[in-house]
Amino acid sequence: MSYYPTNAGFHYPSPNLPAGVDLFGSVVQKAHARGIRVVGRYDFSKTSKAVFDAHPEWFFRQANGEPVLYNGLYVVCINGDYYRKQAMKILTEGLEKYEVDGLFFNAFGNQSRDYSGREFGLCHCDSCQRKFRALYHREIPEKPDDDYRRFMFVSSREVAASIGELIHSKRPKAGYFNYIQESTDGIMSESNTAVERPLPLWPYSASDNVNRARNSEPGKMAVNLNMQFVDFWWRFATVPRQEIALRMWENVANGGALTFEVNGTLDLQDRQALETAKPIFRWIAANEQYYAREETAAKVLLLGASSKTGHTYSQNSYRGLFRLLSEEHVPFAVSDNMDWLGKRKFDLVIASDWAPRELEQYVAAGGHVLIASPQAPEFPVASVVRTSKDVKGYFRVRDHAQLPSLKDTDLLMTNGPFTEVKTDGKPLVTLVPPSLIGPPELVHVDMKDTDTPGLVMMKHGAGEVAWFPWDLAGLYYRESLPAHAALFKDVMDRLNPHRQLLTDAHPLVQMTWMKQNGRQLLHLINMSGHSETGYFPPVPMSNIRVRLEGSFANAKSLRSPAHLPVKVTGGYTELTLPQLTDYELVVVN
Ligand SMILES: [Zn+2]
Question: In CA terms, which of 149, 416, 444, 541 is 20 to 30 Å from 519?
């Protein structure tokens, strides 16, 4: 529904507004008078019965031929002419009428479940059936398979491209935003909650979304929405104040936009989130020169995986790696693609399930790759004997001199898939297969060692690969065992002995190293207030020592304003941050 009078056809003003009122027009006028930009929001995924009655062929059809209704609105299909033709007319009217600074599209493409969580399957409208048959020479499946996912991906990107062309032709300066990466000017995402989402919470959500967006598509801005509400049922109840604050700092520490989401006006029924956001917005506004056009300075790359590659990955393993790097204070960039190859230099690339064949070229040219996954990489590292689905065993540390962080540990546990490989040379850790676990009198009486490697190190060309053929990172995500972290850290440091940043900061201090206009920006976020499902005020920390690679002449902290003395030794610049409250930005020149 429109928040302005419309003549576009099959578009209707909200019945909850007084007739003839141009709410959107007055918002644009009043905001622009105050130097505030306005991005309009459209959602073409559902519309009214009048449209359905006139053009039933534009709408989503379940397998049984029935349309899908939600609170009186009919669900539209991405392959029908509502999206493909009528939406363009509606947008043309809006773009010609209003000087918008951008447009954003919600719920883009075909969903298969509604706001209440009801599943209604895949669309079987005539357009979908015709198009799917022509492309894949078969009928639409009952459940989404690879062909269908590709079909939906292409369908939504076709419409996304047409909308992009329209916006750019009508309002060349306006931005185009969507939750997809293709054809858009910015990459949108959300840090949100859902009451039935499995625990644990992911307190790195905003950093993850923004880091991934900025480094997968470096030419685009990342806008990660900070959703203040708890879940759809409770749009007026806010999440904890410190969760709002943490997301805000994470957004800007990774080079994204500062965001805060409210439904409706700022006249809220629960004002805690808004009152938390206000002083942060004011502080960033006062220091905004440091937050525009930041780029990562990280020299370590963590590979995600994207819908573009069609690869699905284990979220737990990816998040385990994310945590391991963050807790070790290793500055890292996340990319969902290999577009960086040959353009940006990284000292080390880290992968979980997705280790694409292009990495071979990177290694041959002197690159270093660390892979933690029972799934074999797409390029030869070691010959695979077999993959077992579930190994509840151990790995024995064979060489403590090479793995100094494991001085108090001889056995590390494993649980889950394991790939047995054949290699030459002596592995640093070897498999101890499952043995008797009970009763206590018989525990592990039959335990035996093998020569089966739990880690493969392979030199290739000028570079080197380390492969853990088991789910080290997924185990770390679940169990947080220091032994797994120690093994990861030692192998990472063997591959890439020269760390970019060294510090004695607490593991729950999240650090990012960004650069901007020739200066270095070190962001520190104090996450110590997070425990289980609670977000509390962070515990203040003091005298954090930091060594940054490079020779710099001066440094200052902005949140707790101070000039920080620097000392340059051995290729590093040393400084001490006297205090860290919730967040700090250290500017180094
Ligand atoms: Zn359809």
Answer: 541
Tell me, in angstroms, the distance from the centre of ligand 1 to residue 70's CA: 17
Query: What's the gap in Å between 123 CA and the centre of ligand 1?
Result: 5
Ligand 1 center to residue 104 CA distance, Å? 23
Instruction: Give the pLDDT of residue 108.
Output: 84
pLDDT for residue 307: 52
- Record the tokens describing residue 356, joined without a space: 């694409």
How close is the Cα of 130 to the center of ligand 1, in Å? 9
Q: How many CB atoms lie within 10 A of CB 147?
A: 14
Banded pLDDT at 142 (limits 50, 70, 90): very high
Whether the pLDDT of residue 540 is over 80: the answer is yes
What is the full DSSP assignment across 464-501? EEEEESB-HHHHHHHH--HHHHHHHHHHHHHH----SE
Q: Report the separation in Å between the CA atom of 152 and the middle of ligand 1, taken as the mean of its atom positions.
A: 10
Ligand 1 midpoint to CA 233 (Å): 28
Residue 372 contacts residue 408 (beta carbons within 8 Å):
no
Going along 243-315, which residue ranges are E strands?
295-296, 300-303
Cβ atoms of 22 and 4 closer than 8 Å = yes
In tens, the pLDDT along 75-114 reads: 999 999 999 999 999 999 999 999 999 999 988 888 888 8
Residues with CB in 5 Å of ion ligand 1: 77, 79, 123, 125, 128
Tell me which residue of 242, 248, 253, 241 sits closest to 280, measured CA to CA.
248
* Model confidence pTM above 0.85: yes
CA gap 302, 346 in Å, rounded: 10
Distance of CA 527 to the CA centre of its chain: 18
Å from CA of 565 to ligand 1 middle: 64
Tokens 């808004």 correspond to 274
